[in-house]
Amino acid sequence: MTASGTFGVGDAGIVENTGTLYLDGATVNALKIGTLTASTGGTINYNLAGAQTVFPGNYYNLILSGSGEKTYASARAVSYDMTIGSGVTANLDNTITVSGGLKLGTTWKSASSWGFTGSSAANINTTYFSTGTGKVVNALSHTSTTTTITTTYTPSSSNDEETTTTTTTTTTTTTPAMNTIAGCGARTTGFSSSTGASCVGNTGTATTTPAATVIPGCGNRNTGFSSSSGVSCVGNSVGASSAYSYNFGSAVLKNGSRGEAVMELQRFLNAKLNLNLVVDGMLGPKTIAVIKTWQAANALVADGLVGPATKAKMNAQ
């Protein structure tokens, strides 16, 4: 649909579009409505060849094209993608949150913040942004199509003329499109907590924190080598608590015990007490003495027997 002139349904009206609405008339400056619903799949394109004021609503896809300065005078959200075309500048006085990707001209930009020199954006771009101190924060990175043209001149074998061989290589890599609706988290039902838009069709996921890389025997170190396994501590998450669970077996370990469970006990003592024991699977009296001291320090019966209570306490550290 194309609207020439002022488009609207009155100050209290609602516009819900699922196609593309072009605002390109010579007198079009803004939508004259009460509420703009960001319907899934809907696109509004401000494509006047001249200055326009962008309605301060929530959009699904927003395109600023044509030419001139487009003024966006309020903090709102774009539920999918936002495009600022070549020859257009966006004048922002607040933050626009884009749950999809941001395209400037024909190039998709990385997930980050973009704005004019007076903004707090991480990326300053005076070609597509002007004056305003606001910024666009986009969540999704797309990779644009790259075309490489190689031209080779080869002397002809039959005469002095040259022949031209042109090879065109086109590579297109696109980040899978996400329909992340701001304020919906991982929900596909109900409504956005930030914009009020429907969460139906949302493909967003809950934010997760990457698991820390914990190397047993390195403690808080990320240099040197593990005291339990001998592997490098490079990459160990300093300050992270170890999620390693020692397998001490089901039998009570005592002086004279042998086997893999004893080796685990030796690894534990090396990691926690920096004993530098030889991990040989043989439990002797000197190690038993250390265990008794450790039990006393941890409010356990200091009997040198590594039973259920002692094993549980060791794995809790």
Can you summarize this structure?
With 317 residues, the chain is of the alpha/beta class. Helices cover 11% and strands 26% of the residues. Among the domains are: 137 residues; 60 residues, Muramoyl-pentapeptide Carboxypeptidase, domain 1.
Structure, described:
- With 317 residues, the chain is an alpha/beta fold.
- Helix content is 11%, strand content 26%.
- The strands form six sheets. It has a seven-stranded mixed beta sheet, with no helix packed on it. A five-stranded mixed beta sheet has the order 11-14-19-17-18, with no helix packed on it.
- A hairpin with a 6-residue loop joins strand 20 (146-155) and strand 21.
- The longest helix has 14 residues, at 260-273.
- The chain is elongated.
- The N and C termini lie far apart (66 Å).
- The model is unreliable at 9-14, 26-30 and 172-177 (pLDDT under 50).
Which sequence of strands runs across the widest sheet?
1-4-7-9-12-15-16
Radius of gyration: 32 Å
How many β strands by DSSP? 21
Uncertain regions spanning at least 5 consecutive residues: 9-14, 26-30, 172-177
**Residues in helices, as a percent range:** 10-25%
| Molecular shape | elongated
Spell the H/E element sequence.
EEEEEEEEEEEEEEEEEEEEEHHH
The fraction of residues in strands falls at 25-35%
